[in-house]
Specification:
About 30% of the residues lie in helices and about 15% in strands. The chain has 13 helices and 14 strands. The strands form five sheets. It has a six-stranded antiparallel beta sheet. A hairpin with a 3-residue loop joins strand 5 and strand 6. The protein starts with a strand and ends in a 6-residue tail after the last helix.
């Protein structure tokens, strides 16, 4: 279902809405004005930077951020976020179906939008996160960076930002498949060609953002989702554009204002010492770090504190994945990862497009196919999704899931692959089937 452009006549807010609502009445989430969505003259085309991908799901909204043109809104008195519970129906529109997790930035809920009949992920920042962002207005402005990206097959769509109960909340596409952080923890990705396919897809998502002049600045496994969409399998989507956090240098899992931007485990050196402006090459560094973690099961550098990890990013030479695993890894892929992890930005691929070009030119190994991905999702995914939903139920009833756990300090060898598993992976003996 294609998206349609809609403009609120009350405040000028622009949005992409589902094609099925053409000719129907909507209520603006900002000013509450009711208006009718006009019938389209021509069908809008979503921007894609790769071979066409058919998504058989309903494409919901992506706000295009006309906040500057909107009239001044009456000031709202900030107050503590009200914790939603499963079964709540908020504003008669959002039915809370699960608590997906809680981290240092806030809570994440799954809700059913009764008007659109789709599931959404709702991010509710904690008061401390709003304070770190400079207040609710500043947080909304940052969030609208993500909203303004619009629709792309490898970007999690952020549909709109709306203040509910005094707290700005992000309403985004719900992705039920798990983050790469979860996949790394559970060692689900083992075949090199599958790992490369995942890396290529999220590089496409970053490339789209780079083309819009946006640098993510917080690329990490927890911000990359893997899912099934409309009959396509192993679809990768990047999230949390514009929602990077300021990291205190004394702990890799804490946040505060006016400090280093990003997650220490995947931080480019220039993000730390400000030696050069942060740009697309900083995202490329993080891509190299994520690919390294996908292959080895561990971040490039670990330590007992954020300061120690940051020091490694500034001064330590990464151990090649083949040495980390004590098994051969494809030489081209290893060189490419280490190139992405170069200390000097000028020694890395210039952006995600340059990285993709190098992969296309240099990779001579097997190619992960949709047929193989389909077998995996049909045989393995049901149990995986059932476990995720059980965890959501547990989070809704008691202790909360940590959605941002990979920003905490990682140490030890507990996440590494066993020798036998690493040998299979390095030699590409068998697929992840």
């Amino acid at each position: 279902m294609s998206g349609l452009a809609a403009v609120c006549p009350g405040c000028g807010l622009r949005a992409n809405v589902p094609g099925g609502v053409a000719g129907k009445a909507l209520k603006c989430p900002r000013c509450q004005t009711r208006f009718t969505v006009p019938l389209p003259v021509t069908a809008p085309a979503a921007t894609q930077l790769e071979a066409p991908v058919t998504l058989a799901e309903p494409v919901v909204t992506a706000l295009e951020g006309a906040a500057a043109a909107a009239p001044t809104r009456p000031a709202e008195v900030p107050r503590l976020e009200t914790e939603w519970r499963v079964g709540d129906v908020v504003l008669g529109l959002y039915e809370v179906t699960a608590v997906l997790g809680e981290g240092g930035m806030g809570r994440v809920y799954r809700v059913r939008h009764r008007g659109w009949d789709v599931d959404l992920a709702v991010k509710a920042p904690l008061p401390s996160a709003l304070e770190a962002a400079g207040g609710a207005d500043a947080f909304e402005q940052e969030a609208e960076t993500w909203v303004g990206l619009g629709l792309h097959p490898h970007v999690v769509a952020c549909y709109y930002v709306r203040r509910v109960e005094g707290t700005p909340r992000l309403f985004a596409e719900f992705v039920d498949g798990g983050s790469l952080h979860e996949w790394i923890q559970r060692k689900r990705l083992r075949a090199l060609d599958r790992i490369l396919d995942v890396a290529v897809q999220f590089a496409w998502g970053l490339h789209y953002a780079h083309e819009q002049g946006l640098v993510h600045r917080d690329v990490k496994p927890a911000n990359v989702m893997l899912c099934e969409r409309g009959g396509l399998y192993d679809v990768v989507k990047v999230l949390d554009f514009g929602l990077v956090k300021d990291v205190v240098t004394d702990d890799a899992g804490l946040t505060a204002a006016h400090h280093i931007v990003g997650t220490p485990l995947y931080m480019a050196p220039e993000s730390i010492n400000r030696s050069t402006p942060v740009d697309a090459r900083s995202d490329v560094y993080a891509v190299g770090g994520v690919a390294y973690a996908l292959i080895t099961g561990q971040p490039v550098f670990t330590g007992k504190s954020g300061v120690e990890i940051i020091g490694h990013h500034l001064h330590s030479i990464p151990l090649p994945p083949s040495e980390r695993l004590s098994v051969a890894v494809d030489p081209f892929l290893e060189r490419l990862i280490l190139n992405c992890l170069s200390k000097r930005p000028e020694d890395r691929p210039a952006d995600a497009a340059a990285l993709l070009a190098q992969i296309e030119e240099g990779w001579r190994g097997d190619t992960w196919t949709q047929a193989e991905a389909r077998v995996w999702w049909e045989t393995r995914a049901p149990a995986m999704l059932e476990a995720r939903r059980a965890a959501e139920t547990s989070a809704s009833q008691g202790p909360k899931l940590e959605v941002d756990v990979d920003s905490r300090v990682a140490s030890g060898r507990s996440g590494e692959y066993s020798g036998a598993t690493a040998t299979r992976m390095g030699l590409g003996a068998r697929r992840d089937l």
